[in-house]
Amino acid sequence: MRAELKKLSPNDGVEVYNLLQEIPKDENGFINGANGISFDDYKEWLIKCDNMANGVALEDWMVPQHIYWLYVDGNPVGMGKLRTRLTDKLRLDGGHCGYGIASSQRRKGYGTLLVQMMAKEAITFELDKILLTIHNDNVPSIKAAINSGGTIERVTDDKHYIWIECN
Question: DSSP letter string over 25-57?
Answer without folding.
Answer: SEETTEE-TTTT--HHHHHHHHHHHHHHHTTTT
